[in-house]
Amino acid sequence: MSSLPRVDWATAAATAARLTPAGPVPGPAEAAAVVADLRDASVRAQAYVREITRMDPPGSRRTYVIDRGSWIRANLAGFAEVFDGPDQAGSARIREASAGVMAGAVLSVLSPRVLGQFDVFHGLADPAVDRGRLLLVAPNIHAITGKLGLDGADFRLWVCLHEETHRVQYGRAPWLADRLAELVRVAVSAGPAASDHATDAITALMSVVEGHADVVMDQVGPQVIGTLPTIRARFDKRREGRPGLARILGRLLGMEKKLAQYREGAVFCRSVQRLAGVEAFNRVFDSPDLLPSLAEVRDPDSWIRRVRP
């Protein structure tokens, strides 16, 4: 196995800062109102998601409402934990500026599009830090609301439902972030055969967590979001979709088309819940061995047969 890429994180940060376009700048009163409503929507989403998913993990429920620059810095810090680890972070080893430029460029391209993200790698290398944190990119949510002509309060709650589902998933399965980090390391450092196996495993994992979040959004939505059909119809027309961790990994690992297949994960989730119930589906978060393979994501019956007691 070859070594992990030596990324110059300072170059990545400088590249992203240089290339990231400035976001919309609403007036102070309007900006304050959007931030306050996002915080309120995040709190409301917590109760809805926990009721629908039947999962209520312990841990911090704090939400960070941020701008594009803060989102970029959060992701660079998270990937530094994945690639460097606690033993090498901050070391004086030689790093590659080219890898830093690529990472910074990818994040700069995605930064105007991402609405929210559960930062799964936060605290990965430091046991004293709370694992994971929920990020909401206020300027982008505000801009898309206006661009698509959506009801602001409804759209903000809709976004929060998706990201809150991720918080519940990773809270229920503390090992999940470590598993994803391990697969990413293998995908970027191993030979072709091992790398293909890792990318399939990443695709399966991300399809399930993203698909499940979309299902929860739609299950909760009709009860509390009056304009849900409008939001879904207009948002689904956006070609770039809803960039988040899957899109970042796809760009960085060269597997964007694979990780864009959220619909397979949503079909898997709905099928398992219909055939075996919500609690049966929740077993995917019980241990790494119970995660479905990519073949099982596409054949939910086979996963049910494998894990059924």
Molecular structure report:
- The protein has 309 residues and is mainly alpha-helical.
- The protein has one domain.
- It has 15 helices and three strands.
- It has a three-stranded mixed sheet.
- The protein is globular, with a radius of gyration of 19 Å.
Write the layout of secondary structure elements.
Layout lengths: L8 H11 L8 H26 L9 E4 L1 H16 L13 H14 L5 E3 L15 E4 H11 L3 H21 L2 H15 L2 H33 L3 H8 L9 H9 L2 H4 L2 H15 L1 H4 L12 H4 L2 H8 L2
Parallel strand pairs: 1-3
Antiparallel strand pairs: 2-3
Helix pairs in contact: 1-3, 1-4, 2-6, 2-8, 4-10, 5-6, 6-8, 7-8, 8-12
Which structural traits does this protein have?
309 residues; 64% helix; three-stranded mixed β-sheet; single chain; globular; mainly alpha; 3 strands
Question: What's a concise summary of this model?
Answer:
This protein has helices spanning 9-19, 28-53, 68-83, 97-110, 138-148, 152-172, 175-189, 192-224, 228-235, 245-253, 256-259, 262-276, 278-281, 294-297, 300-307, and strands spanning 63-66, 116-118, 134-137.
Tell me the domain tally.
Answer: 1
- Spatial shape: globular
Q: Helix- and strand-based class?
A: mainly alpha
Pick out the low-confidence regions.
Answer: 87-93
Strand content: under 5%
Widest beta sheet: strand line-up: 1-3-2
Mean pLDDT: 87
Order of helices and strands: HHEHHEEHHHHHHHHHHH
The strand count comes to 3
Radius of gyration: 19 Å
Termini, distance in Å? 37 Å
**Total DSSP helices:** 15
Please give the largest β-sheet: 3 strands, mixed
Helix content: 55-70%
